[in-house]
Amino acid sequence: MLAVRNVADLKKGESAVIKSFSDRAMSLKLLEMGCLPGCEVRLDAVAPFGDPICVRVGGCYCLSLRRNEAASIVVE
Amino acid sequence: MRSTSYKIALIGNPNSGKSSLFNQLTGLRQKTGNFPGVTVDKKSGIMRFASIPEAVAVPTEPEITTDRPPSPVTPSEAILIDLPGIYSIYPKSRDEQVVMDILANPRHPDYPDAVIVVADASNLQRNLLLFTEIADLGLPTVLALNMLDVADSMNLRVNAVQLAMQLHVPVVKINARTGEGTELLRDAVQRASTISLPQSAYFMDPSEEHEALIEETKKAFGLENNYLAMQYVCQHEAFTFLDPSQRTQLDNLVASHGFDKTDFLAYETITRYERLRPLVQKAVTIVGESDQPAWTRRLDKILLHPFWGYVAFLGVLLVIFQAVFAWAQYPMDWLDLATAQAIEWTKNTLPAGVLNDLLTDGLMAGIGGVIIFIPQIAFLFGLVGLLEESGYMARVMVIMDKLMRKFGLNGRSVVPLISGVACAVPAIMTTRSINNAYERLLTILVTPLMSCSARLPIYTILIALVVPDETVLGVLNLQGLVLLGLYLLGLVGALASAWLFSLFIPRREPSYFILEMPTYKLPRWSHLGIMMFDSVKSFVLEAGKIIIAISIVLWVLASYGPGDSMEQASEQALSSLTENVSPEAREATVASARLESSYAGHFGRFIEPAIRPLGYDWKIGIALITSFAAREVFVGTMSTIYSIGGDASEDAVTIRQRLQKERNPRTGGPMYTPAVSFSLLMFYVFAMMCMSTLAVVYRETHGWKWPLVQLFYTMGLAYLSAWITYQLLS
To answer: Does the keyword section mention Transcription (chain B) (predicted)?
Structure first.
């Protein structure tokens, strides 16, 4: 597949594996909170009005972040 | 032998159960203060150790030489310091900076002798990231494994012995909610003080990649630890203990080695995780499919639902307000009555005179005005604490983020705004968790518009005067509904002001919102109890001091006047009366004439022209002036003013009854008409009459600019809305 997909593109309930980050400053925060390349993420819930979203990281905890922030997480 | 100079720092991720553990280890032996030099709240407490005979506690083997000489005696207790919850030692907000400011500076008064790192066992790999960073700083560390029950429900089994062997530190399994394992933890911490282990190998040694830079930094600052030297390189901007020349020196070092901090941090974090992964895989056995507990997922389906999520949130708010108005009313009525009876008893028992008057009308009336708040403050802090403890507050932030962004705020602004309902001072302090400076400033500016508990007595009394105590729609109390309306008005005012400010204040940095969603938990009632007790205690001690002082000053101002003007006034009043007036009416007329010619009366008269358009007289004027320092003084002042000379009428014991009896000298009707009462309500919804809030805003924004902006815009808003209300209703 040619198009680069990110976490914000996921459908509710869909899973994917983190590949890399497209924003350096954001990647530091996400790494510290446990979003690692190779980790599985699943779009769990979407807040009212479509933003922010909640993703399950590595099957063990839930992170809430805005759509534009989720867009910096590139998935395979 | 006691050695309370022994200090232990408590460190852990947010939501790892750190504050529960702090409460378990210290109980009520806690105190709140500030870390020296910064405005971050510091919670510390005494942690007692089980007494171990000296002979057993002192190690028999020859001492191992280390940087840190082991303390010569076994401490019997230690000071436990609760540090802000962090994900790594690299700070993301102002609050978090304090952690490294202490840990990187051995001369800091709070520099710990040992560290307890609390880790959430259900998310071990991420929690251990912080642990490895702390351990690499060379601090004696004990790992407390918490939330094993949650891990268990997620089909994870953690082997603590395996973990201890691999990490080379004591690992203790605890349950911070029940207190299980805390005795073992105390022993492990006590032992860490006497047996000092040599620095084990670095988990990640920064000189692997940056040897020359580390060596030069260590030499320049006399450091021994490679990882600590790296912190000087990365975080020197934020270290308060370095002077400008030292910072420049470090800037030069960074520049001459072409060091890129962001690259290093990404490399460091990924390396640490890579090394942790096999270790965690050995220590944790997965016995089934791991996922968040089912009830957390089920609850989130409802509470994050586009429609039901908001219904639930509104429901929670409605319950809070109805509860605070309806439930807190009973203890408040008792306190009100008890104060009135205590005053009457003292008045009749002690010999009459100036001292009796000062004690009863001045001091006791003032104290009564303070303690009447206790039920409501306890209720509000308890309920807000309940929302935080249960994990629901994080969901509120999520469902409110998009809405808050429209007003230039952040989902995290919800916590200060909701806490503002209890008191603006702690609420403004919670804005430090908003990592965006711009959104933080807006939140600070508008938080005082949220109706705090100090306004509640004013609302309560005035609503009770003009709104009938009726039930509408079957269950809702009409007075409670009006109260809810006032709170909503404050909220609308806050959001609208934030939006207006966002038009004028330029935004400098982009906003972000990354938040961990904790699993739902049943709150620990003892934990909530400690929190309620703490908030009431600090209110009674801090606000109480001001209120009582002002009450006494006020009594003096109301009881004395310039020269002999008060005597003249009373004689004039007597001579103007006809013979057939009852003694009670005679006394009341004299008292009112005396008050009018007192110093307080002069003050009130002086500002009367300015407040006449709002429907207020000089008596209300006095209360407005005194409540300028703290709005809770309003009710205290009212009771002082109306109790002077009012003691002749036996039935008017409570402040509400006194206000009901008050007549407007111009019309002869009641003074507190709906127009005047609602005008006063509007005034107090918006007016920022609280010295403590101004002081805390000054402290948080580092200058007088923002507190003054805040003071003027809120007072303008208050005057305007009170004026419109009075003109419409009268």
So the answer is: no
Q: How far is A9 from chain B (nearest CA, A)?
A: 18
Domain match, B174 and B241 both: no
Q: Inspect the interface and report whether the beta carbons of A32 and B307 lie closer than 8 Å.
A: no
User: Domain check: are B268 and B128 in the same one?
Assistant: no
d(C-alpha B679, C-alpha B624), whole Å: 13
On whether both B196 and B231 belong to a single domain, the answer is no
Rounded CA separation A8/A51 (Å): 10
Chain B residues touching residue A15 (CB < 8 angstroms): none
Q: Where are the beta strands (DSSP E) in B629-679?
A: none
**Contacts of residue B91, Cβ cutoff 8 Å, sequence gap at least 6:** B97, B99, B100, B235, B238
Tell me the chain B residues in contact with residue A25 when contact means C-beta distances shorter than 8 Å: 262
Which residue among B201, B228, B244 closes a domain?
Answer: B201
Per-residue pLDDT reduced to its tens digit, B538-597: 767 766 776 677 777 877 887 788 877 777 877 877 777 666 666 666 666 677 677 778
Shortest CA gap A18–chain B (Å): 13
Distances (CA, A) of B301 to A59, B96, B297, B305: 17, 32, 6, 6
Lowest mean pLDDT among B130-139, B401-410, B477-486, B664-673: B664-673
pLDDT digits (tens, 9 = 90+) for A34-74: 888 888 899 988 888 888 899 988 877 888 999 988 998 99
Contacting A with CB below 8 Å, chain B residues are 87-88, 90, 92, 122-123, 125-126, 129, 154, 262, 265-266, 269-270, 273, 290-292, 297, 300-301, 304-307, 309-310, 394, 397-399, 401-403, 411, 512-517
> Do both B110 and B45 map to the same domain?
yes
- From B231, B262, B286, the end of a domain falls on B286
Of B430, B395, B400, nearest to B415 by C-alpha is B430
| Selected residue of A40, A56, A62 to mutate for chain B interface (largest B Cβ count, 10 A) | A62
Residue B398's φ and ψ, nearest 5 degrees, are: -65, -50
Does B217 lie in the same domain as B197? no
A27 touches chain B (CB under 8 A): yes
Residue B112 falls inside a structural domain: yes
The whole-angstrom separation of Cα B381 and Cα B48 is: 28
In a domain, B63, yes or no: no
Task: Render pLDDT for B506-515 as a digit per residue (tens, 0 to 9).
Answer: 877 777 788 8
Res. B64 pLDDT band, cuts 50 70 90: very low
**Total number of domains in chain B:** 3
Question: Are B549 and B574 part of one and the same domain?
Answer: yes
CB contact under 8 A, A49 and B517: no
Is residue A74 within a helix (H) or strand (E), and if so which, with residue range? Answer: strand A73-75
CB contact under 8 A, B517 and A62: yes
Q: Considering chain A, what percentage of its residues have pLDDT values greater than 90?
A: 16
| Pairwise CB contact (< 8 Å): B516 & A36 | no
- Are both B117 and B249 inside the same structural domain? no
User: Is residue B462 one of the residues assigned to a domain?
Assistant: no
Q: How far apart are CA B710 and CA B160, in angstroms?
A: 53
pTM of the model: 0.75
Q: Does the A7-75 domain belong in CATH 2.30.30.90?
A: yes
Q: Is A56 exposed, middle or buried (0-12, 13-18, 19+ CB in 10 A)?
A: buried
Does the beta-carbon distance from B512 to A26 stay under 8 Å? yes
Residue numbers belonging to the annotated binding site of B for Mg(2+)? 23, 26-27
What residues of B form the annotated binding site? 12-19, 23, 26-27, 37-41, 82-85, 146-149
> Does residue B42 lie within any of the structural domains?
yes
Cα separation, B721 vs B727, in Å, equals: 10
Instruction: Give the domain range for residue B90.
Output: 7-50+73-201
Least confident of B53-57, B203-207, B286-290, B614-618: B53-57
For residues B278 and B229, state if they share a domain. yes
